[in-house]
Structure formats: structure tokens, C-alpha cells
Amino acid sequence: MVLSVLESSSHHVDHVRTSAEDDFCAFRPEIQAEFVENWTTDAVPVIPSTVLPNGIAMPMLGLGTTHSGGYYHETVVYALRNCHYRMIDTAKRYGVEKKLSLAIKESGVPRKELFLTSKLWPVDFGYESTREACRGSCERLGTDYLDLYVIHFPEIPRWFEQPRLIREETWRALERLYDDGVCRAIGVSNYNQKDLEELLEFCSIKPHVNQCEFHPYINPMQLREFCKEENIMFTGYCPLAKGKILDEEVIKRVATKHNKTAAQVCLRWSVENGVPAIPKSRQSYRIRQNCDIFDFALDESDMESLANLHDPSRKCVKLENLQEKYSLPDGYKLNGISSICDNSVVSFVS
């Protein structure tokens, strides 16, 4: 039986305040604007936190900002200002760090209340270049530290020689950034067990996090168990599988049972597995919906039904063509997005 993160003794979670039942509903398009206009921060649940292996608190639900699908400034501001989102997950690769600094400043949320994650793109691997890349992310985000900095992928670009040595030098740079207080936690992303085993052979500090695709159709139990044994927090991206699984009958049936949406069921499933989730949406009403998952719990039969859906062929993020992508510019998927902040640096509210 899978324990809810709200009950598990292995993960401390902050007090949860939920909104009234009347605030929870399926949102029809014709009433979306009315709900967005009338929602207040008092009606929104406070998002609970888990604790990383080094004792740093991290929210169980955050805001993804990948460049796929574009960047939506007002949605980010709304998530921070109106919905109590405090974790933002981004990367140099996404090309939105400067834009996020503007959104954060506009939201009025103080830096100390935020949990900012950014990622190191493999073209920046190496000791000095990793440190420089981290400083660049901090500058674009308008902060002097990151709450979490992770290696985006383990695969080395072809032009690097001695891949293992490069990975070791890169991790040493992350350890130094951690020791210097530039990063409150460090980790990896898209690492399989073999990748982690290699890292564990030479690291002085274990990664605090391994961030991988995670939803009912991609549930890598063996990798999750390995991370648990090594005291590495497994966290999930694409918790809604980019919307591709929300019409599946099993998920819809569970959603109907709890008077919730399919997206809310997927996010709740992640939370109850103890896996922090970072969904992304361009719509404010969906941002609001996504955080309304702390007033219900999935029962054992629900968890079993969803756990049985694992199907590797349903993976959303394909890793086979990474080498070709290394030559593309950061944020190349931001078609038509304004470059309003390409030349600006913004400081946080103190």
C-alpha cells in the first residue's frame, strides 16, 4: 500500500489549509473568466512541503516553465500572487529566466519565500563553465543564490573528450557551488540507475534530487526504489503527460469518483507517492485547479488502478535526439515570445 505524503513518516509536510467545497468544481469554458476574476488568495490552499535529504524544505507542487508551448507572463504572476505557488522550476535552456525575474518582481513575493530551481545544460559542462553557467542563471533570475541547481541531462555533447572525467569535473563544480552557498541543494535530472551509480562512485556529496518524467503511465519503480535507498529525492516533471493522458478512462473514472478533474487526480497521485510535481499550464484557471488537490485522498484501489498503467511507450520526453538539440539556441521553442527583458536584469523584492 502506498502511503500519502501527508501521512508518511519519511516526509515532513507543513500544515495544509484548504478552501471551501464551493471553490472546487469542473471549470466550463464559459465560466472560466468569472472564476479567475473572483478567486482570492484566502480561498486557495497553502501548498505543503516535503524535506530534501539535507533538510531543505521544498514545496510538493511547483510551476513548470519549459519553453515548449511558450511563456505566459500573466499566468506566472497569477500563480505566485493568487495561488500560493512558491516553487518555480526553470532552466537556462528554456530561455525564460529573465522573463521570470520580471514576473516574480511583479508578483511582490519576497525572494526568501520562493524555491527557485534551474538546470545546467550539457553544453556548459566542465568545472569553470558550470560555475559560470550557474552565476549566469542567478543573474538572469535576479538572485544571488538558487534553492536547487541540477544537471539537466547526463549525456555529454560529442565534442567533449573523456565523458566520465567531464561529468566528474561538472559535479565537483556543483559541490563547490553548494559549499559556497550559491546553491542550497544540488541534483540531477533524467538520470537512470546506471548514471546515478557512476556519479556515486566519485561524488563527495550525493545529489539531493533526481528529477524525471513521472505520471501514471511513466512510473519507474526500480529507479524510485534505488533513489530511496540512496537517500535521493525522486521528483517528477510532466505530471500530466502534456495533457495526453487526461482522457484515459481509468483516470476519468477515478476523477468522477472524487468529483475532481483528471489533472487533479494525476497530481494527487504524484503527491501521494511522495513525488513533488511541477505541472505547467498557460491558463490561469488550470493553474488554480492544479493546486486544489489537498482536500481529498485517493484510496488503495485508486492507487492500485493508476499504478497498473505504467507503459514505457507513453513517455513524453524523448531522449534519443539530444545530440542534435545541443546545437540549437536556448529557448528555441519560444515562437513569437516578446524579448522585453533580453537586455535587463531585475532584482527581487527584499
Automatic annotation (TrEMBL):
The lineage of its organism: Eukaryota, Metazoa, Ecdysozoa, Nematoda, Chromadorea. Residues 62-308 form the NADP-dependent oxidoreductase domain. Coiled coil: none annotated. InterPro entries: AKR, Aldo/ket_reductase_CS, NAD(P)_OxRdtase_dom_sf, NADP_OxRdtase_dom. This is NADP-dependent oxidoreductase domain-containing protein. Belongs to the aldo/keto reductase family. Keywords: Oxidoreductase. GO terms for molecular function: oxidoreductase activity. It comes from the Eukaryota. The keyword Membrane does not apply.
